[in-house]
Amino acid sequence: MGVEVVALAASGATSTVIGLAVTEAWTQARGLISRLFNRRRQQDGTQAGDEELRSAVEQLAAALRADDQYALGDATDRLRRRLRHSLQEGSETAAELVDLLRELDGERDRDTSFPASRAAAAALSGVTYGAPPALRASGPPSEVPALRTRFVNRAAELADLGDSSEPADASHVDVRVLAGPPGVGKTALARHWAHAMRRNFPDGRLYVDFAALRGRSEAGADVLDAVGHCLRSLGVQDTRLPASLEERCALFRDRTSELRLLLVLDDVTAPAQVRALIPHGAGSVVLATSTAKLGELSVDGARPLPLEPLTPQAALLLLAARCGEARIAADPDAARQVADLCSGLPVALHVAAARLLTDRHLTLSALAAELRDEERRFTALRVGGESPVSAVFDSSYRQLTPELAHGYRLLGWIPGRSFDAATAAAALGTDVVAAQLLLDVLEDMSLLETAQDRRYRFHGLVRLHARERAAAEEPSDAGPAVVRRVLTHYLALTAFADRAVRADRTRVADLRSLLAGRTDPFAAQSGRTPLDWLEAERANIMAVLRAAGEYRLYTPGWQLAEGFTVLFLHHRHLGDWQESLELGAGYAAAAVAPAAEARLRSLLSRPLMDLGEHDAAHRELEVALACAEVAGDLVLQASVLEFSGRYWDQFDPSRAIAAYRRSRELNVRGDEPRGAAIAAFFLGRAQDAQGESADALATLRQARTDLLSLPDPDHRMAARATLALGRALDHLGRTDEAAAMLREGARTLREQEAYAYEAEALLDLAAIATRPGADRSRLRDDLTRALTIHEEMGSPPTLIENLRARLHATD
Fold it and tell me: How far, in Å, CA of 367 to CA of 134, rounded?
């Protein structure tokens, strides 16, 4: 007999006992029931289950005659549970009792001397039953709402919850917490699993939506109402509901002690909401959904099941399930963009699908274009004027206190996708301790996720929601103030990193007042290296640089671009290097800072040359020279001439030599020994390129000596001079000496993280190794390392393909 049939039979038989026991027919019915139990006893001997069943019938009848409502409720539940378990165990006595009561119930309905219904019987006797008649007639409660769309994905999570084909573990009560950001599909997963597992919970599936109970002013009112709802669903009438939460919880535990239930608790915000509704029947399951992690429940044995946004493949699967596979296949690139811009959140994907289904003129490409605009994205995720995406975020947002909500809004204005506690503190204008408290709350509510090194980022569309609320609730100057504070924070840290790498490098920005009184995070020997920090923050600093222009923060913007270039001198991300310097030069021009513009435009010629954009590099150098002359700074003019010499290296070595000599002269006049030594290094390279290799050796040796003799020796530039010496030696036919110099320089440059120049040395060594009779033992390793460096730098595709061909040729 199936569990649903068993439950219905037990409920119907119990109702018949109630209907008979309040009439004169009970004497006859009681006699028939007694003869049934006596006969079964004589046939099968004394059965404990049969005696418990007989006792349960007698206790129910006694409670009805005594008009004891509390005893009646207990007796009703006891008989129903005893009947159900006996039927499930295959008891013939229980089956005969159900048949007998069904026959007696039929005779009562045909005989006008019997009340026409259980409700009429109750009216005659003045007895109120422990559950509404409709509940008794329809069997166990089944309250979990059905899904309105086909469920796809989440195979791993469903497997974690348990396969619907296997019975649930009956040894304990299992409590699971589905936690994740708003709109990630927690409720859909819980509902799908509840319906798939319905046969494992024969006593019912209860559902509580705490979002609907939220907003009550009394503390704990939502829990009181939730427990009351579940008791009603289990047959307890309002007149029997205790007033206090403690008594209701005690009654709930008693009512569920022998039941196998599933409770789906939706949108839970506090552990107390779950603890109050943990049933006592073994094999029961509580499935709670929450944006909060509810880690306190782990003490009670609860097991978390975190839900992350869908993968790109899973997001496409959901779109295809809603819109049809043919539509997705017709424009897969646009479909992938839509899925990506919905941040893998099912709620956003469902809205996007709804728009595509309701507007036959809307294409995937057009929808993707709407979603790409961050300012319009939430508008694009509306259907018929409603915004389900905003609604799910608003639900979590309303749980924040006014102070925390204010912090949440301000964090949304931070440029960049990730930030640490110090950056958050700068954005909020507070200390790190206060910022960390806000970050912990938002992380626990799944509004933020933790990345590596205790860095944070907003989940998917949450950042846009924070900005939307900020635009509506914060004053107009709040956003620019946040960006200014964050820009100042990054400017100080980048300046410290720049100086930690090379303190005596030429700089235009005077940041002494900014750095005064601040702690240098790179001063500690055990701390993070400045280049590692700059590399980790590269994307965020780029975002801050872009925001500087939007908010007209021109001076700190060009100052940040100047300091940031130290990263690219070592790790050549050419695209970012070019953009950062273009932004900085534009900001310097807007701030009317000719010295800064000269410095940034001359630096800009470097990535442009590496990218093969020689004409653009030449234009930048011409403007830089003009700005340097206006500024009237000898050292700055010397620096711009040095960069000009590098340009002429490619086209006219004699002009390059002239530029380097003039640069060295101006550096000496400006008392800049490092600049003079660097100019000598480039002069020696130009002499070697001109065929004056013997003169080049003398110039380069002196340059290397001067670089290593500085108060703070410049090992990186000295290693580059070593490479140039190796090339000059090779040009003079001293190949063995040349290879030793190149290998030494490559090793030092790798230690200095000057990977671009390391790659140059390795390619020179590879060229030597391919000559007839040369040692080729390290050729493949050198080419592989050089290729890796150029791929990571984003070098031109033609160069990378050439290196791949050379590497392939070694096979």
Answer: 49
